[in-house]
Specification:
Shape: elongated
Number of helices: 20
Number of strands: 42
CATH superfamily of the largest domain: Bira Bifunctional Protein, Domain 2
Distance between the termini: 86 Å
Length: 801
Amino acid sequence: MKFTLSWLKSHLDTDAPAERIAEALTALGLEVEEVVDRARALAPFVVGHVVSAEKHPNADKLRVCMVDIGTSTVQVVCGAPNARAGMKGVFAPPGSVIPATGTVLEKGVIRGVESAGMLCSERELGLSDEHEGIIDLPGDPPVGASFATLAGLDDPLIDVALTPDRADCAGVRGIARDLAAAGLGTLKPLAADPVPGRFPSAVKVALDFPEEARDACPVFVGRTIRGVRNGPSPRWLQDRLLAIGLRPISALVDITNFVTHDLCRPLHVFDVDKLAGDLTVRLARPGETVAALNGKAYTLQGGETVIADAARVQSLAGVVGGEESGCGEGTTTVFLEVALFDPVRTAQTGRRHGIDSDARYRFERGLDPAFVVAGMEIATRMILDLCGGEASEPVIAGAVPGGERRIALRPDRVRTLGGVDVPVPEQRRILEALGFQVSDGPDGGLLAGVPSWRADVHGEADLVEEVMRVKGFDAIPATPMERLETVARPALDPQQRRGALARRALAARGLLEAVTWSFMDGRNAAFFGGVHPGMRLLNPIASDLDVMRPSILGNLIQAAGRNADRGFPDVGLFEVGPAFREPTPDGQDVMAAGLRAGGAVPRNWHGGARAVDVYDAKADAMAVLEIAGAPSANLQVSTDAPDWYHPGRSGCLRLGPTVLARFGEIHPAVLDGLGVSGPVVGFEVFLERVPQPKRKAGPARPLLRLSPFQPIRRDFAFVVDAGVEADRIVRAARGADKALVADVSVFDVYQGPGVESGRKSVAVAVTLQPLERTLTEPEIDGVGQKIVAAVAKATGASLRA
């Protein structure tokens, strides 16, 4: 919401400077984003008198002008066609900055003639797009006078950021009302005397809505005005519109824009000669079109509130007018429309078609329903004053919504809720200054009638807020909170930090975060270990959300199924949240769960396509455990995953007896029961079970130590019983020499000819990384012997011949 100081003073009798007004507005809850002093940039520009204008000796289209600037006479080379002797223009001296380009003006020589300044056009000063010639000042302004002062540009511009609930302050008068209540001046009376109708209106209006859409337009007021002259609007009106970033168009259009910003009363004028009969306010039919004033055409989906004549839609009600019935230079008869449109429908129409307008901004926040008729009278008077003509009798369709709201304010409620003891007489004064109709209430309190323009006031707490913001929130005493602990605690505990880290790690691995219900269908919960009787909801929000979820995977699998039904079978999802085992304080697990469905690598020309498998899920679980701080070197893999995983393609990650995570391919029976096609792999990590890393005393060690010595890689093939997990071999090899063994990985598993029945060959690659010196061959052989001995002891393995 933008306005100038002089514009504000047309409603508020005050001597307060712009800086004081900005402070008061912010204190009132109307945050001032900036105060723009437009005169500052134009300070060097003064009125210059062109004493003479001779043809340039070396250029046909240039003139050499002698310009009197009050303190001296300077020579200026000018190329404007209207430069002539005797005129008064705007002179820019060397060193000044041209607002439109940011160029610093310097003395120069143009075609061999010195030029010590510049005569400016309106575009160069950032006043308009006019650049056909230099500014020709009317009248007889004093030479050397400040152009900014002469043009009224020494008028600060104030920009206020409104919250959505303060629609009453989307007009300059509403801003003035709040400032008057705060004691910064007196609100001037607003003349809204009825304009006598001279003849019946040539255009009638009807409201045509089904019963369920009666609120789309409760009241529509209008009148015909004939004999108007639609020329340029007066300079004062153009200046105000230009100051807030609006382009003056014509008197009729400028009046509607002015009233919108001045009084928060959007309205519209139709050219009667372009209408096909009377107007009907109704819901749009699918496929109807409208050519809007913004130069775009819109095809309506149906259900939008529109204003139509007998032939076509002429306006999207409350959003934008139609181009076909717009007013131009030849307009002589207009129909003035002032209506009340439903905020929700207006917002939906604007969003549906991507239209932002000043009218929509105000209608969707809720306008004063009692100001419809008064707004019409004010706009009518302004049209008659600036454009002439005569007005018809008003046309009214519908009725102004009634229903007075009265709210009781207890005498001590401001103190108990707002923290400041404000006497009841002062509460009454503040509320009355804001427009509330205040009378004595019960028990010494007040009874406040809410003004029609305050749709945001509904209860006693709102009245307390009104009193407090005018009284000043800085009047609330500063009371320090009681110190509960002597040692500062971190903002997030370790578990909260782990949840955030898990989200980041999984998102980095390409999974998308989902937020599902903490409930699920009891029939589906049976697939995930069943439900404790105490986990059934007595009052579920839906029949298929009747139990607390025992696992997050069930909801994620169903979400993956919905994606597949819509043509997106390859998906990766995760969620960090609770799963519920029993109704006890310890019966809830904080988990990071996720799944991958469909293809892990899409089909491509290289032929690398493959479906997701158990190792994708294991890698996801390992990534979460690693970032949560689990000691990865000590993790063990077991094959005792729950029943909702495939028994041969799943596992658990554990530290001794504690299961930290489980992973694997989802059992086909579970997928069938949930109506989802496979393959689907998933994982569940118990974040609370991950032990906190131990802090060791002593100097800090670098997380990564780079060695200048080349690593050595050796391969070993062990023959073990077929039931021995490869992980046991890896852990045994890694523990054989913790100082030198940097990595152990499995690269081959073989069963068949050459290996006796019931046994298998597991080949591992071991990386040795010396840190202090290069290893000799005997030292390398010694480490190899340690590895063979450690694996043999742990698994009964022997080296494969």
